[in-house]
Amino acid sequence: MNKNKKGFRQSVTQVSLVLLMIFGFQFKVSAEYIEGxxxxxxxxxxxxxxxxxxxTGLIVESFSHGGNGPNPFWGPLTNTDVDASxxxxxxxxxxxxxxxGGVVVFTGKNFPCPTQPSCEFAGFQIHAKGGNAFMIDxxxxxxxxTLIQTWGKDDxxxxxxxxxxxxxxxxxxxxxxxxxxxxxxxxxxxxSTQPGKQV
Length: 199
Fold this sequence. Notes:
It contains 3 helices and 12 strands. It is an alpha+beta fold. It has 2 domains: 1-27; 36-193, no CATH class. A hairpin with a 5-residue loop joins strand 11 (182-186) and strand 12 (192-193). It starts with a helix and ends in a 6-residue tail after the last strand.
């Protein structure tokens, strides 16, 4: 391919992605730009409550599982530190109303999986980094421009991440089933489990 043409096409798609993030245009990024990457978005805006954001940040860890027998393999693949400045209360405000509907907390290509039978990229484990609670209203996972899984729904039941006891009280009490230090989100089933300590 002509280098000038290739450079122009890359520039156009990069500019399009920047405009998408700034103005919240409809999530339609070309497969050429993403090249099969995974992209995880968190919507932390819930109309029934306030202060859904956090000042302590998150850790987003992708994981795989597989193997035969009673003890199947489970292991981390990648680890992403989500800075608190990207998920503050003000960042979460009206997030659910935007067409992109969330903040990008993870991107990655197809993952290398350990040499275990039937091992596959299986989900994400999200960790609270501190005692300032964070609410997840909804999450969506894309591969390229294709939506492949959704957890939750806009203004529905939510998840609470925190390391501090009592953060599921007040106006959060009717929306979350406790707060946890870490939560697993499974891709195939679209379900979640709480391996972390309930606080």
